[in-house]
Structures are given as C-alpha cells and as structure tokens.
Amino acid sequence: MDTIELSKICRTCRTRLPYEHFELHPSMRDGRRNECADCRAIKKAEEYQTKKVEICKKLREDRSDNHEKYRDQDLKKKFKISIEQFTEMLAAQGNCCLVCKTTTPGGAYNQWHVDHDHSCCGQENRKKTCGNCIRGILCSNCNLALGTAKDSSMILRALADYLDAYELHKIFKD
Q1: Residue 7, beta-bridge partner list
Q2: What pLDDT, on a 0 to 100 scale, did the predictor assign at position 131?
Q3: One domain for residues 91 and 45
Q4: What is the reported pLDDT for 123?
Q5: How far apart (Å, rounded) are the C-alpha atoms in residues 84 and 18?
Q6: Is the dihedral of CA 89, 91, 96, 100 positive or negative?
Q7: What's the mean per-residue pLDDT of the chain?
Q8: By the 8 A CB rule, do 132 and 120 touch?
Q9: What is the model's pLDDT at position 1?
Q10: Is residue 105 situated within a structural domain?
Q11: What average pLDDT does this structure show over 34-53?
C-alpha cells in the first residue's frame, strides 16, 4: 500500500512542500505554520535587520544602566573572578595601575584591565583564562603596551634601551 505524503502550500512562496518543511504550531488547524521554514527564516532575518539598531540601542542602555551586573558577568566569564575579587585585587595594589601607578584607568570605556599570562591558557582561547594566571590590574595604556609588545619582556627592554639611547644622544648633542 502506498503512503500518502502530506503537503501544504506556503502562503509566501506559493510552493507546495511536504509537511516537514513547515514548523509545528499548535493553534493552526493542521498543526503546522502557513509559511515554510525557509520563508520564515528569511522573514525573521529581514525583521531583525530592521530592528537591529533599536535592539542594539536597548542592549547598550541596559549595559549602561546595569554596569556592575554586566562587569561581574564579564569578569566571571573571562577571568573566573567576581567583581568583589577584582575590587580586592585593585585595592591590594593601591587602587592604581600596577605598572605606571596612575589612578585613572583611561581608554574608551574608562575601565581597568585584568592582565593575565596569555601563554598559560593557549592562544586559541584568547577570550577566557583559567583564572590562575592573572598578573594584576592595569590601566588601558599599560595593557595596550603589553599587548602590542606581545607580552615580550625582550621587546619591552629593547624599547627602554632605545629610549635611553635617544636621551643620551640628546644630552651629548646639546
């Protein structure tokens, strides 16, 4: 005996398709949506694009209004420390950058940076750490300098030697 394949016409693309191309929907008479999954996905993507700016604005406002909550989530996710642990670490180093001793974090977001040993957790996992390789809290400039120098003490010493040599040359030139 032949089995009858149930099909339905999509109201958007007007194509007759098998029932499995239509998502389940309990309030529909036949239990399936009137739009096929492909047309529904396209429609959802178009809706998202039109609402994207509005959605992003609301998310930014929410992050701004709930800064502590999101900062705590970010610290836990990336560094496995709480906002309380972060605050204790910053206080233990005198509420200043561990390197240059500035008391203002600077940068676009005016926020302190958790410095960690990138070699500890592997280069493929740059967004998260094990939590055991945190070196300290840095200002934006010192964090950028370390990152630009690829955490290489050799490069940083060479830069310091370069600056010292220039200063010596400048003194003897005068």
Answers
A1: 18
A2: 78
A3: no
A4: 56
A5: 56
A6: negative
A7: 89
A8: yes
A9: 47
A10: yes
A11: 93
pLDDT tens digits for 115-165?
Answer: 988 878 765 556 677 878 899 999 999 999 999 999 999 999 999 999 999
42 and 71 inside one domain: no
Q: CB under 8 Å, gap of 24 or more: what pairs does 121-125 form? A: none
Q: Domain range spanning residue 88?
A: 67-173
Task: Name the token pair of 54.
Answer: 């509005």
pLDDT reported for residue 45: 93
Please tell me what DSSP assigns to residue 27: T
Amino acid identity, position 74: D
Task: Name 16's bridge partners.
Answer: 9
Give yes or no for residue 55 having a pLDDT over 50. Answer: yes
Residue type, 33: R
Q: What is the pLDDT of residue 4?
A: 59
- Structure-token pair, residue 26: 């309990």
| Neighbour tally for 62: CB within 10 Å | 12
Cα–Cα distance for residue pair 131/96, rounded to 1 Å: 21
**Structure tokens that stand for 67 in this block:** 């800064």
> Do residues 137 and 90 touch, judged by C-beta distance below 8 A?
yes
Q: Is 59 a member of any domain?
A: no
Measured between alpha carbons, how far is 112 from 103 in angstroms, rounded to an integer? 10
Assess contact for 112 and 105: CB atoms under 8 A.
Answer: yes
